[in-house]
Amino acid sequence: MKDLLQRFENKPPAIVFEWHDDQTPARGWVVINSLRGGAAGGGTRMRRGLDRREVESLAKTMEVKFTVSGPAIGGAKSGIDFDPADPRKADVLRRWYKAVAPLLKSYYGTGGDLNVDEMHEVIPITESHGLWHPQEGVVNGHFNPGESERIRKVGQLRRGVAHAVEDARYTPDAARRYTVADLITGWGVAESVRHQQRLWGRELQGKRVIVQGWGNVGATAAYYLAQAGAKVVGIIDREGGLLRPAGFTFDEVKALFLNRRGNQLAADDLLPFEEINRRIWSVGAEVFLPCAASRLVTQQQVDAMVANGLEVIACGANVAFADSEIFYGPIQEHADGRVSVIPDFVANCGMARAFAYLMGEGAHGDEAVFGDVSATILNALQRCRERSVEPTGLARTAYTLALDQLV
After folding, report:
1. Tens digit of pLDDT for each residue in 145-191?
2. Among the four residues 311, 352, 387, 403, which has the most C-beta atoms within 10 Å?
3. Rounded to the nearest 5°, which phi and psi values hold at 279?
4. CB proximity list for 239: less than 8 A, separation 6 or greater
5. What is the model's pLDDT at position 31?
6. Residues 304, 288: Cα–Cα separation, whole Å
7. Cα angle at 56 between 51 and 58, to 5 degrees?
8. How many other C-beta atoms can be found within 10 angstroms of the C-beta atom of residue 367?
9. Quick check: 291 and 218 in contact, CB under 8 A?
């Protein structure tokens, strides 16, 4: 398996588009790992210090993700090296999407990612450049539709992703109009834990949870797990965090979700980052959700959590472990040998799966879309369970199943 992963990792991407902004220091890359199935997909992220290597690694991760989520297309990613707190961010994104619009019309589909919002940035900006939807390139390149079919599929995407979730089972507050795009990735991360616990004969009720990152993915996943009876005991975010060894109540988790400041944790009793980072890893939890930036989780953190009862890691972040390798580096392998590691391409496939589902023929209500994501993740984990009954080695098994389709 590792030899196959290394071959896949080391194969050069099919297309690399590089961009230099003429008005700021911003640089950007679209990396298309392959045009498998005639198209490629992957979101747009922005952070200061991002480089081409990071974008390449995420494009390869997306290709593996599509083996779970569908459709059967190549992996891609967009990345912009720029400070997302800079007031010029919106102008940078407008110029970026203008430059890559020809790709997005033809064979590449994108969406939101780290520090780039699907509904408030990606969709309106790409629409201003003549795109009906940022996944239009996947529709055109993969499905090669006739005009009426293209209009229908793109229309389903436009309505489905922007749909305000109304079903109380899926939204923290219907009055605030959270969309499918806001909630679906975190929903999938939470469902991956719920399914893993059941498939391996465990009980989610009362399990303690540590969350890294309080953006759309981390906060939403924590909300759904608390709703299912788990106990969030610690949250670590970029500016600080919170500890509650006895667990926050569901209402408290919901309030922390609703009271976010942008995509950041906001609370009066926020602990400084240095303190929360020193204490959280040994607070004691069965579930860990890394849902922040890539390559943050260290072996020291894993070992501290394992020593205090850790059972499962569900990777809400892409390439969550601080390995130089893209896939299954030594830290991830170390963790996978001690606990159940649900890899990113399974745990956080919610948005990719929602896109794939909305391009299809099924019903498009809340229950249908959220239920489909849950069923897709359950199917992936069931296949792993059929291959190996051990709770450890889950990530290794999932990669082996993906490589059967790609290499």
Report:
1. 999 999 999 999 988 888 899 999 999 999 999 999 999 999 999 99
2. 352
3. -100, -30
4. 264, 265, 270, 273
5. 98
6. 12
7. 100
8. 11
9. yes
Tell me, rounded to whole angstroms, the distance of Cα 52 from its chain centroid.
Answer: 19
**What is the rounded CA–CA span in Å between residue 157 and residue 20?**
30
State how far the Cα of 407 lies from the Cα of 404, in Å rounded to an integer. Answer: 6
Q: Which two tokens stand for residue 347?
A: 């745990």
* pLDDT confidence band for 5 (50 / 70 / 90): confident
Distance from C-alpha of 267 to C-alpha of 263, rounded to nearest angstrom: 13
Report whether pLDDT(123) > 90. Answer: yes
pLDDT tens figures, 379-401:
999 999 999 999 999 999 999 99
Q: Which of 316, 307, 369, 305 is nearest to 346 (CA)?
A: 316
d(CA 288, CA 285): 7
Burial of 328 (0-12, 13-18, 19+ CB in 10 A): buried
> Could you give phi then psi for residue 129, rounded to 5 degrees?
-100, 20
Distance CA 209, CA 214 (A): 13
Averaged pLDDT of the chain: 95
Which residue type occupies 212? Answer: Q
Beta carbons within 8 Å of 90's beta carbon, 6+ residues apart? 121, 125
Q: Rounded to an integer, what distance in angstroms lies between the CA atom of residue 4 and that of residue 407? A: 7
pTM of the model: 0.92
pLDDT score of 407:
77
Nearest to 345 by CA among 75, 43, 64: 64
Q: Which residue has the higher pLDDT, 23 or 10?
A: 23
Dihedral of the alpha carbons of 137, 347, 51, 31, in degrees to the nearest 10: -30
Q: For the chain, give the longest Cα–Cα distance.
A: 58
- Residues whose CB is less than 8 angstroms from the CB of residue 178 and which lie 6 or more positions away in sequence, other chains included: 164, 165, 171, 172
Tokens of 364: 């498009």
Band (pLDDT 50/70/90 cuts) for residue 364 is confident
**Neighbour order of strands in the sheet with 340-342:** 271-272, 240-243, 231-236, 208-212, 287-290, 312-314, 340-342
161-164, long-range: CB < 8 A, 24+ apart: 161/118, 161/119, 161/123, 161/133, 161/354, 161/355, 161/358, 162/119, 162/123, 163/364, 163/366, 163/369
